[in-house]
Amino acid sequence: MILRLILGDQLSENISSLRNANKADDHILICEVKSEATYVRHHKKKIAFLFSAMRHFSKSLEDLNFNLTYIKYDDVNNTGSLFGEVKKKIDNNNFKKIVITMPNEFRLYSEIIEWENKLNIPVEIKEDDRFLCTTEDFNTWASERKQLRMEYFYRNMRRKYDILMDGDNPIGGQWNFDSENRKPPKDGLNVPKNYAIKPDKITTDVLNLVEKNFKDHFGDLKPFYFAVTRQQALIVLDEFIDKRLSMFGDFQDAMIEGEPWMFHSHISFYLNCGLLTPLECIKAAENAYYDNRAPLNAVEGFVRQILGWREYIRGVYWYKMPDYKEENYLEASRKLPEFYWTGQTNMNCLKQCINETKENSYSHHIQRLMVLGNFVLLAGINPDEVHNWYLAVYSDAYEWVELPNVTGMILYADGGILASKPYAASGAYINRMSNYCKNCHYKVNLKDGKDACPFNYLYWDFLIRNENKLRNNPRMGLIYRNLDKMNSDKYETIKSDSNIFLKHIENNEKV
Ligand code: FAD
Ligand code: DLZ
Ligand code: SF4
Questions:
Q1: b/e map of 247-269 (b: 16 or more CB within 10 Å)?
Q2: What is the DSSP string of 352-407?
Q3: Which residue minimizes the CA distance to atom 7 of ligand 3?
Q4: Best substitution site from 36, 268, 394, 399 to test ligand 2's pocket, by max atoms within 8 Å of Cβ?
Q5: CB of 360 sitting under 6 A from ligand 1
Q6: Under 8 Å CB-to-CB from 43, ≥6 apart: which residues?
Q7: Ligand 1 in contact with 405 (CB < 6 A)?
Q8: Which of 244, 265, 268 most suits a substitution to test ligand 1, by most atoms within 8 Å of the C-beta?
Q9: Strands 2-5 and 97-101, bridge-based pairing
Q10: CA of 359 to the centre of ligand 2 (A)
Q11: Percent of all residues in the chain with a pLDDT value above 70, rounded to a whole number
Q12: For 113-161, how does the pLDDT look when each residue is reduced to its tens digit (9 = 90+)?
């Protein structure tokens, strides 16, 4: 008799902890607990999504005749923690061991490895083989290299899984078609409506529960339209392949006011909690290419996100943890401005992205990276503050994927393990890739003064402030040579505009 614990992001029928389960004897435990629901103040939609998906998943396991205990958040005897619920089960039954699939956060892993001693029962932690690269394989690859460049990792994964390959060569003769991607948005672009699911009884119950118990958490609970079952998540994937994939590459980096979903897939929520598997998403896109339903630049771009970036990010997380969480290479120390929680800012790009995050618990990659991320990088916000925000607000956020994106990709806090240079940009980039600047209080073409776009002077101020850490980076040479050409008046104006702006955000004044 084995106790098999399934976590909220392990909602896959083929999860390793369920393999070879004896339906007559073994027992499955799934629990909604306060410790997991509040270790950061998760967005209300994120909690509702996960609780509803967990309840639907447990029903599907019961339909397969598994013995299962499901602990609801408001059950009177809910102890509030995974340990408490496991202990209760162990104390009241005669289990010979606990089986669990490797949790995806170091925090929980460190806790679970203590259970064997605390509970005096063997705890078997199985590999999470839903990922396409084992942590062991990643560690071997990483330990043989000085620089961990995603592109080389990705090429190995393409070969290993034989995706978009023509023998030993990439289809189309290139590994990467980014030069054809990343077009600015154009007028009249027809973005398909996103797929919205009507809440059923289970979801409605969960929405009431979240409304009552998580009032003070960030974000809009309703309208709620996420998929909460595997069948529904498969429809989201199909809709993406049919309606959006063909334009995914071209407009991957484009941002349009009022269009939060663009041509992205919106499957990260489902991939990360187990309702979809990475390989089925990759194969669906690859097949669309072979059937002439989507061009190669779009399909390769999408495949790279999942087979490349997603696996690579997870590899870096486990390779570098726990030290990775402490990294602060640029010694950034400012607090996150209050407007990241309220959207109350005159900077239109930030206002749009924050309000969409509040509404949908989603924003697409370039909004996370080049608007929200670019700002916290330039403004020198402390990595912990940024990390807590990103982990709380997005429904796809778990530390394994959020932390390297924040620490490595947006903040350069790891000193260049993940990105070869900081993703810093002035307002010109945002203006090129979006229509946000048209409706902004600030003028993107002005470089200094109170009406100038703050990204413009903060960009140079960032380079000046961090010169001793960045100047010797070969990829930053040209930028620093431009800075060297700047006359002293200009230099002083940048410093003064930036100091005034940064003081405003420190004092919580509206910017
Ligand atoms: P699409 O653009 O359609 O891409 C397809 C899939 O590729 C995604 O679903 C995702 O699984 C994968 N993917 C793409 N980029 C990345 C990446 N950089 N890292 C890992 N997977 C990637 N993604 C998360 O899943 N959870 C997070 O908590 C998260 N935090 C992020 C924080 C920051 C600061 C940044 C810059 C990126 C973050 N990402 C995170 C990556 C990416 O922004 C999201 O995966 C993507 O926006 C999800 O939307 P989508 O499903 O429509 O993605
Ligand atoms: C994110 C989350 C939330 C909000 N609630 C629960 C929960 O009540 N029970 C649970 O088992 N898991 C939850 N999760 C997901 C876990 O936090 C996740 O499994 C770990 O962070 C490891 O990735
Ligand atoms: Fe953002 Fe600057 Fe454009 Fe305003 S002008 S939307 S602050 S980039």
A1: bbbbbbbbbbbebbbbbbbbbbb
A2: HHHHHHHHHS---HHIIIIIIIHHHHHTTB-HHHHHHHHHHH-TT--HHHHHIIII
A3: 347
A4: 36
A5: no
A6: 217, 218, 219, 357, 361, 392, 393, 394, 395
A7: yes
A8: 268
A9: parallel
A10: 21
A11: 100
A12: 999 999 999 999 999 999 999 999 999 999 998 889 999 999 999 999 9
Q: What is the pLDDT of residues 316-326, one digit of tens each?
A: 999 999 999 99
Domain with CATH 3.40.50.620 in the chain: 2-126
Residues 6+ apart with CB under 8 A from 425: 370, 374, 455, 459
As a CATH number, domain 339-506 is 1.10.579.10
- Per residue in 51-85, pLDDT tens? 999 999 999 999 999 999 999 999 999 999 999 99
Which protein residue's CA is at the shortest distance from atom 10 of ligand 1? 268
- Please check whether residue 371 is in contact with residue 351, taking contact to mean a CB–CB distance below 8 angstroms: no
Confidence of residue 178 (pLDDT cuts 50, 70, 90): confident
Report whether 414 contacts 407 (CB < 8 A): yes
Question: Where does the chain hold its CATH 1.25.40.80 domain(s)?
Answer: 135-192+244-317
Asked if the 2-126 domain carries CATH number 3.40.50.620, the reply is: yes
Reply yes or no: is the peptide bond before residue 295 cis, omega within 30 of 0: no
Measure the CA–CA gap between 218 and 12, rounded to whole angstroms: 28
Instruction: Point out the ligand 3 atom lying closest to the alpha carbon of residue 427.
Output: 8
* Closest CA to ligand 1's atom 45: 268
Q: Quick one: tokens of 372?
A: 């929200």
Find the 380 Cα to ligand 1 centroid distance in Å.
23
CATH domain 135-192+244-317 topology: 1.25.40
Q: Are 189 and 195 in contact (CB under 8 A)?
A: no
pLDDT tens-digit map of 454-472:
999 999 999 999 999 999 9
Which atom of ligand 2 lies closest to the CA of 34? 8
Q: Give me the residue label for tokens 């005897």.
A: 77
Mutate to test the pocket of ligand 3, among 450, 453, 510 (most ligand atoms within 8 A of CB): 453
Q: What pLDDT is attached to residue 188?
A: 83
How many Cα atoms within 13 Å fall on the side-chain side of residue 439?
A: 12
Ligand nearest to the CA of 45: 2
What sign results for the dihedral spanned by CA atoms 150, 156, 158, 161? negative
Looking up tokens 């002293």, which residue turns up?
488
Distance 506 CA to ligand 1 centre (A): 30
Residue nearest to atom 29 of ligand 1 (CA): 402
Please give the distance, rounded to the nearest whole angstrom, from the Cα atom of residue 313 to the centre of ligand 1: 10
